[in-house]
Amino acid sequence: MLIQKSAVIIQDDHQQLIGFEQWGLDLWGCYLSALNSYIKSGFTYGEAMYGIDPKLICFEKNGKSSIEVILKYDPLHVKKTITSFILEERDFLQHLMNGASNFYTLMNKYKIHTSKKTMSFLSETIELLKQTYSKEL
Fold this sequence. Notes:
The chain is α+β, with helices and mostly antiparallel strands and 137 residues long.
């Protein structure tokens, strides 16, 4: 079994929003879970555990075309915000899906096992986004 410690770096044009200090296990899977939950809620709210630490990554609709990304520390359900930021929803979701897709493609290229369940989940999430954004992703 391969344990992947990684960081998913999120930045806008001017600053790093989530950096290397927020590393963990299978973070791309965590982002996919939060995104899938967000889509299935009708693009209102989604969350997932962030790695194996007691953290949550949350996506919350913020206005007509924006999304708030919130990383929370959640020991015993006393939620403390580590960071939060607001981005243009469509652009963020497109970049997030491209990043996840590229990551898993690279893992497969180097024969690092990615479960069929994860690949199926990635495909399902991409299809849900395509249905929403007219196949532009």
